[in-house]
Write a structure and sequence with these properties.
6 helices, 68% helix, binds ascorbic acid, mainly alpha
Length: 152
């Protein structure tokens, strides 16, 4: 087996990113928009079913709820601000220019969301219904606060 093939198998085994064969053609702004929208999509894919369970729209499944909480916390833990480089507005983006005019506030709100989501992950694992309800609400408040200020 060639060294190259061995290196590839080793990298895959270690879960390392393999560079694409062809560079994609996104501009840095397009790439940032895709990055942040992907992150928000994954946040929503975990947060929404948790909300649906709490509202009784989905049957409460404590194990699934805890898994969504864990994944929400993991996703919220990535460097989300990396997806908001200076002035990365775009036609396909609902991010308002106010983000970059009020960067410190935006950053603080983002960090607030990240902190509350981390707590929600822990509380979801704990299984106490009252604590879960409260922490779900606290987390949702940080979603809404930032969207009200900074999302079209
Ligand atoms: C959602 C969603 C949001 C938040 C926010 C929480 O499911 O899409 O933006 O929850 O509404 O208040």
């Amino acid at each position: 087996m060639s060294r190259r093939r061995l290196a590839l198998i080793f990298a895959l085994g270690c879960g390392l990113a393999i560079p694409p064969l062809q560079a994609d053609e996104d501009s840095p702004v397009e790439a940032a928009i895709k990055y942040r929208q992907s992150a928000m999509k994954l946040v929503g894919a975990n947060f929404k079913p948790m909300g649906a369970m709490l509202k009784g729209e989905l049957p409460m499944d404590q194990a699934a709820f805890a898994r969504f909480g864990k994944d929400l916390a993991a996703i919220a833990g990535i460097d989300i601000l990396r997806g908001f480089p200076p002035d990365s507005e775009g036609a396909d983006s609902k991010a308002k220019a106010d983000i970059w005019l009020n960067w410190d506030d935006f950053r603080q709100q983002m960090e607030g969301f990240q902190a509350e989501a981390a707590k929600l992950g822990a509380v979801a694992a704990g299984g106490d219904p009252a604590a879960i309800k409260e922490q779900f609400g606290a987390t949702g408040k940080t979603c809404k606060g930032c969207h009200d200020d900074y999302k079209e």
